Amino acid sequence: MRLSKEYSNADYRMLLAIVAIAVVARIPSLSQILLSDHQTVYENLA
Questions:
Q1: Which of 24, 25, 20, 17 is nearest to 9 (CA)?
Q2: How many domains in the chain?
Q3: End-to-end distance of the chain based on CA atoms, in angstroms?
């Protein structure tokens, strides 16, 4: 029972990560906003 429970939790996390990546990949504007935010953060640090 414990092994199957841990396995299901790992599968759930992996599935959630895949879904999140797919959603970001299908929304170019969202990914551009995230990338621009990261660039501004790096510019502020530099």
A1: 17
A2: 1
A3: 51
Instruction: Report residue 27: phi and psi, to 5°.
Output: -120, 90
Amino acid residing at 26: R
Could you list the residue range(s) of the whole structural domain that residue 25 is in?
2-45
Secondary structure (DSSP) of 1-46 = -HHHHHHHHHHHHHHHHHHHHHHHHH-HHHHHHHHHHHHHHHHHH-
**Average confidence (pLDDT) per 10 residues, the chain, 46 residues:** 71 89 78 70 68
Copy the structure tokens of residue 12.
Answer: 């759930």
Kindly compute the dihedral angle of the four CA atoms of residues 34, 22, 19, 11, in this order, to the nearest 10 degrees: -110
